[in-house]
Specification:
The chain contains eleven helices and three strands. The chain is mainly alpha-helical. It has a domain of 203 residues: Up-down Bundle (Vanadium-containing Chloroperoxidase, domain 1). Strands 1-2-3 form a three-stranded antiparallel β-sheet, with no helix packed on it.
């Protein structure tokens, strides 16, 4: 029994010695493989750490795209406002439309048409609660300025120059409409049917029709017609709730239509059947100059 135990002990010691010898010999026999493995791991870790750094460098400038674009557009904005205002209010056909709308407002007020229309809405109101407040918010100039600012910001961040220019054009048209509406309100300073000040013209109506006119110029009837329906609903709401006389709405709609179409028409790209019209210069032996049609698919 003791012999078996001693032999078992010696066998265990012998096996342990073999294991230790193999463990000590393995790093000595294959140092090159370990070094190569360490180098491969270090190179892969460097590559993994370098990739997010390049991504961060590429993404940093994009955060300030809107700021740089806005700074550039604001620098040119005063001249653009002056040129667009001259075209909107001094062009003969626009001046005629505004004069006719102003004359219609005077006639409606002096012939008691405003009073009769107001009495009809007072006896038969149709907008209450949610409908009334929804149209009030939808037609508010602050809503339009906020939407145009969001449009400008998103298109700038996406590097979409076409929509950036369209958003800035809408903002320019809204600014001209707001300045003209505010100036006329201060000059006229008459009361609304519900006793508020600065009735003529309707700011909600003029701003809403400005938006509809700009969208109609840029996108055609498919967008323009629904936009005009929404603007007309806002105008109806202003009379239904007693916030404005009918003459306020008539002139406000005309003012928004004139400014919106004029400003957007001056700055939109010329198109024929969906194709952009671009200048063409021939690059052959004989110099040729003309126009080309361009469409992106």
């Amino acid at each position: 029994m003791r012999v078996c135990r001693s032999n078992g002990l010696w066998i265990r010691l012998f096996c342990a010695g073999l294991v230790l010898a193999a463990g000590c010999a393995s790093p000595a026999t294959k140092p090159s493989e370990q070094n190569a493995q360490v180098e491969v791991e270090s190179e892969s870790s460097q590559q993994e750490s370098a990739e997010p750094i390049t991504d961060q460098k590429d993404s940093k400038p994009k955060k300030h795209l809107w700021y740089e674009a806005a700074k550039e557009d604001l620098r040119k904005w005063p001249k653009r406002l002056i040129d667009d205002s001259k075209e909107s209010f001094l062009r003969p056909d626009n001046a005629t439309a505004l004069l006719l709308a102003g004359g219609a407002s005077i006639i409606m007020h002096n012939t008691h048409a405003d009073t009769n229309i107001e009495r009809h809405f007072d006896k038969h109101p149709s907008l209450h609660g949610f409908e009334d407040e929804s149209l009030n918010v939808l037609g508010h100039p602050a809503t339009h300025f906020g939407a145009s600012a969001l449009w400008y910001f998103l298109s700038t961040q996406n590097e979409d120059d076409l929509n950036r220019q369209r958003a800035w054009t809408l903002r320019t048209a809204l600014t001209l409409t707001w300045v003209a509406t505010t100036g006329l309100k201060l000059a006229r300073n008459n009361e609304t049917p519900n006793g508020k000040d600065y009735a003529w013209p309707s700011g909600h109506t003029s701003s809403s029709f400005t938006v509809a006119s700009v969208l109609d110029e840029f996108y055609g009837p498919k967008v323009g017609i629904p936009a005009y329906v929404a603007a007309s609903a806002v105008a109806y709401r202003m009379m239904d709730t007693g916030d404005h006389w009918a003459s306020d709405v008539v002139f406000g709609a005309t003012l928004g239509w004139v400014v919106g179409h004029t400003v957007a028409g001056r700055h939109k790209e010329l198109e024929i059947a969906g194709f952009n019209v671009v200048p063409y210069v021939g690059n052959t032996e004989e110099s040729k100059v003309g126009v080309g049609l361009l469409k992106q698919f």
